[in-house]
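**Archive record**
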Amino acid sequence: MVESMKKKNSECRQRTDLMIERERESGISPIIAEILMVALILLAAGIAYVSIFQLPSLEKIPMVAVDITKDGNLVTLYHKNGDSLEQGTFYVAVNGNRVPDGNVSLVGGAYPYSPGERLVVNSPGGNPVREVKLVYAVPSVSVVLASAFFPGPTGNTTPLIPTPTPTPTPTPTPHISQNSITLNTDRQGDLVTGGYMQFRVTGLYSIITYSQNTYNLNQGDTVRITIGNDKKGSIYATSGSISDFSFNNVGLSINGVSTGSSGNLKSIWINGYDNYASTLTLDVPSHKAWTSLIVDGTTLINGDSSSHIQIINLKPSSSGGGMNLDTKAGSTYYIGGASSYSMT
């Protein structure tokens, strides 16, 4: 009897221990599941963070509007508007070849290359300039920001040799120029008071800000701008647009009606024009200084010179090079057309 009872007690204890063990396992399993779930969530969050925040940042490509003109092997890139470009982040290519930095100079300011400033490029080599590109180039990206293509001549052109007009007086002798003039000198030049530029607006969205007023111009409006007594400034025009005429104390008339005789022309954008007429005269007084004067592809001065130079009736070059004048910084730079010039 005693042995039978011991056996039953042993079996009861075994069943009790088994039930306790099952209850313990059933209580631990949910905890382990929760721990695993939390670990998976944290792992997924880590992967998402790395994917979103640790990707390499994309290079911001600057946006610029640049007018590109040329006269022979001299190329000008006028920064109209947009982002400034730090030195070393861009280069100029001519005919597919990068131009050495020593052949590129900034006119009208200092780096970074910003709106209102000009890059003047002396293209090396004797090949005609056909294609010009402004390229943004940093280690992570290289992209063309602006470009221009200049087709070759369609026919023979004969350089016009300056012909002096016989005169017994010591007054300057005018020389006729049909195509282009490039003048670069360390002397201060000025526009002669009373000279004007006149044109008829042909493009939409043309606008002039003069003194405190803004004039939205209509197609067919005739505009005349007359130089006053502040004769130092800058002009930039192509055959199809005018984007700079920075002079103070100028006169402005629209359709023959004067809007002022001595106001400041703060900004101009002419999106197309014709019927251009000009009496603008650039005067560079006699003073010995480095000077370069090229007329219709012929170099007339290259070195120190004290000649009194006048360029008469400034206009965009008929060869498609536009008109670019800067007399602000104690020196004189002009590339464009004219009806005549004189040296004395």
